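sanity check this record:

:::
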Amino acid sequence: MDFLAKKKSPSKFKKVALVYRTQSKAAKEHAFSLAKELSSKGLEIYSHPKQKLPTPSKSYSSRVALDLVIVLGGDGTYLEAVRMTAGESIPFLGVNLGSLGFLTANRIEDFPPILEMTLAGKMKIQERSLLEVKIKKGEKVVKEWVALNDFVVERGPNSHLIHMELEIGGQPVSDIKADGLILASPTGSTAYNLAAGGPILHPFVSAVVATPICPHSLTSRPFIFPDDQTVTLRLLGQKKKASLTVDGLKTAELSSGEKICVRKSKRTHMMLRKPDHNYFALLKDKLKFGERA
């Protein structure tokens, strides 16, 4: 498929990364075709370090200052691309070749004119908040990540509920006994948070939502709080452990004596949308929002 018109489009984007869904033959074929086409127009093409694209593309490293990331796949592929760039503020364009495609909202059938608009600088940049997640032992930071969607602490393979203490802005909120707890950004509120009974937050709301997973209490409900506050989470009890997942990928294990600190990152995620993009239309299209059974 030729994604661009035959004439060369003037573009401020010079270094472009393409990330595709590895399980999809169609996604890989489209990525290869797009890589060749963009390369022929003088753009530098970079691949995910664990993926291959046609020569003269290069493997991406953190030393490369990208101008654009194009994702061909589903939401999982999109989040992998965010991980690859470590949450850097780079414009992302998502094309749905997966299943749900909430982050990758553009259909492949509509992609040629959308790509033209992107390279011509006619797309709208939506800034989405990122979550900064740190594990601390005492005051020492042991590990840290950035998440676009959510951060989840859960019991993992253990059969017992985990007992957690939740603080916001240094003030105790509650003790929670549950299978786990989701801390989601507005962007991530339509993911695991929604499946666990949490509310949908508009992407431009300055908030974070904490949603217990199967709590052992009728009064443990989702809680929305300002995103300029630090959330602190600790395991209660001796020799307790829990699994930590960042944007759907298990990343670490939390032990008693450690604490998790979550707050809004100073960086933002830059998502490219069409100028007439309608968030509520997207909710209706992808999640059947507002429809009667």
About this structure: Confidence is low (pLDDT under 50) at residues 5-10. The domain at 130-266 is CATH 2.60.200.30 (Tumour Suppressor Smad4). The longest helix spans residues 25-40.
